[in-house]
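User: Okay, second chain of the day. Same drill as before: sequence in, structure tokens out.
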Amino acid sequence: MDLQVIKDTIFNIRGQRIMIDIHLAELYDVEVRVLNQAVKRNIDRFPADFMFQLTKTEWTNLKSQIVTSSWGGRRTLPFAFTEQGVAMLAGILRSKKAVQVNIEIMRAFVLLRKMSLQYAEITEKMDALESKYSSQFAEVFTVLKHLLDPEISKKERIKIGYKK
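Assistant: Same drill. Structure tokens below.
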């Protein structure tokens, strides 16, 4: 299983990383209907923070982000599974393929979490540098503004040299 394929099916909705039932069914090599039936039979294992149904607006926005033509005609809105919900799926889909796919999905979630932590660290360092050097850069930008704007440079320029 290619980790990049899995990463491309993880989306941010409602401030959470999720995977939708269509992609999970494809990865597990089962029909969406079969996956959703298994979930409904074990609905007590999927509280609201593990799984939720997308709204029509969320589904429309998500479809516009994904360049795929194989959506088919759904009558119901898809279910979104958080990382914990995907982990719970492993317990109800007991095939060997489901277990292997689940391991890869968990690795993808962990990798995305590490990447977001690194991004946060970089952002903090950039903010620290900006606050430390902002006054020095302000002077540089003021000088550049004077050099680039001919009106400013004409007004404030002091003439030097011989006078007639």
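Residues 146 and 154 are 9 Å apart (CA to CA).

User: Thanks, on to the next one.
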